Amino acid sequence: MGTTQLDTVPEPKYWHLRTVLTEALDSEFSVGEILPNERDLAARFGVARATLRQALEQLELEGRLQRRRGVGTTVAPPRVGVAVGSRKHDWPGTDDGWQPLDSVLAVPPPAVADALGTGRDEPVHTVRRSRVTDGRPVAAELLHIPPASVPDRTAIDAPSGPARARAVLRELRRLELERQENAVELGSAHAEDARQLDRLPGAPVLVVTTRYCAGSRIAALSVATYRADTCRLTFGDSGDVEIHHGGPRGRAC
């Protein structure tokens, strides 16, 4: 990584340094490689450490760098594409890159119950899944499924863990999927999201809510939280993406 003269650059120093660092990341570094420490980088580019930190923070926000406690600053893998608006619809668990972790029968948050059209005191199957890319967690999902969508309880024979989650998803796929709707919003990581995604509470996240419809009703509701620094939205050919605020909304399918 070479040196550069920043004093005569008309744009903010940190922004020009961000451009120089981006070029170096593309040509000199590989994914996962650890960058030199801040003191060495600041001396090499002739900038204050505060300027360097601004540039590093910008690159982290853009998903180019990943700063990990006890490791240092590393080159991040490419962002994960989050498909929205695609015509290809399928039930969750059909080779979609998610890893099932567990499934419990529990009362969901009121906003989820309202979206599903179930009573607020009615337990639903809640499947917890995660998505990992290049060894790092990039998304966490809670998939809420009313008992009416998986009526054969005897087929769900595993008491807990990934086996139970897979059994619930298997039974869900017995329904005929009519349509799938996605909604996207920018949010902040809550404590549990932050723990699962290896981020600090309050870190920016993308929340993708997906409604799976069968029999003119919502058969399942997914709330997936993606790290905003590792993901990008990709748009299919079916039209607009719904952007909304607040909890999941109920709507007839």
Give an account of the 3D structure:
With 253 residues, this protein is α+β, with helices and mostly antiparallel strands. The chain has six helices and eleven strands. The protein has a seven-stranded mixed β-sheet. Strands 1-2 form a two-stranded antiparallel ribbon. A two-stranded parallel sheet has the order 3-10. The longest helix has 16 residues, at 13-28. It starts with 12 loop residues before the first helix and ends in a 10-residue tail after the last strand.
Structure in a nutshell:
The chain has 253 residues and is α+β, with helices and mostly antiparallel strands. It is built from six helices and eleven strands.
List keywords for this structure.
single chain; 253 residues; two-stranded antiparallel ribbon
